[in-house]
Amino acid sequence: MSSQPVEVAGVIYSSISAAARAHGISQHGMEWRIDSDAFPDHKRLPAVRKPTGDHLVGRALVEPERWPFDGDLSRRAPVFDPNITPPRLVRRVGWLRCMLCSRPHFSEDVVGVRICFECGGEGSVPIGRISDLEDDDL
Ligand SMILES: [Zn+2]
What we know:
This protein is of the alpha+beta class. It is 12% helix and 20% strand. The protein binds zinc ion.
C-alpha cells in the first residue's frame, strides 16, 4: 500500500492504487507505467506530510507581561487565544481602581476582576495602603 500521491496525464491521485482504479488497470500496471520512460506523464509526487504534534495540543493563551503602575488606569493589553484563526480576544488586562477601596490594582480581566487582592477579590495587591500595613511585596 502506497499513500504517495501520483500525477497521471495531468490529474493528481492520492495513491497509485487510486490512479490505477481510475485508469482501469492493475496497481502493478500503474506502478510500471510510473517507473517507465514510456509514460513521461505518469509520475510520483512528493508525499504529503501531515503536521504532527502541534495541532494535537492546544496552545497556551498569549498573556501580556504585567507592567509597573505608572498612574495610567486606561491602558489595556489584550489576551488572545491562538488556537482560533484569527486569534480571538479572550480578555484584557490592565491597572484599574478597586471597586471597594479605590486603590489601583492589576487585573487579569478588567471586565470580570474589579476588586483587589486585599479586599478579597481576584486582582493584584493594590498600590498604596489604607492602614499602616507594609506593602513591600508589590
Ligand atoms: Zn480594594
